[in-house]
Amino acid sequence: MSLRRIKSGGAFEAKIGYCRAVVAGDWIHVAGTVAAPLPDTAEPPEGAAAQCVSALEIIKAALNEAGAEFSDVVRVTYMLPAAAEFEACWPILRDTFGEAPPAATMIECGLIDPKYRIEIEVTAYKPRP
């Protein structure tokens, strides 16, 4: 089985030594993803919901580069430093996954920096022709 690595150019990829996603056969593993910094402040958007939207945009780009989309996601893990902030993300997640919701887990934990309010990791399955 061949592996293909997808990089997004995020700051943590180079600092830590990982890539945004790895395509392994029919499987696409997308690394835990936090919000992108806003261009005017270099800080992430305010709040879990806005950060959720930003992280999903980064994940979508990685999935698209791998030839997949959100309907191919079979597993998702949400990590938040405060579980109470997760409910604000629910409408966004319902809209994102629509009629093809994945199996999901939400974990309350510390993230790499307190300014981040959510980190999202997905695994997708996309049979190759």
Automatic annotation (TrEMBL):
<protein>
    <submittedName>
        <fullName>Enamine deaminase RidA, house cleaning of reactive enamine intermediates, YjgF/YER057c/UK114 family</fullName>
    </submittedName>
</protein>
<dbReference type="Pfam" id="PF01042">
    <property type="entry name" value="Ribonuc_L-PSP"/>
</dbReference>
<dbReference type="InterPro" id="IPR006175">
    <property type="entry name" value="YjgF/YER057c/UK114"/>
</dbReference>
<dbReference type="InterPro" id="IPR035959">
    <property type="entry name" value="RutC-like_sf"/>
</dbReference>
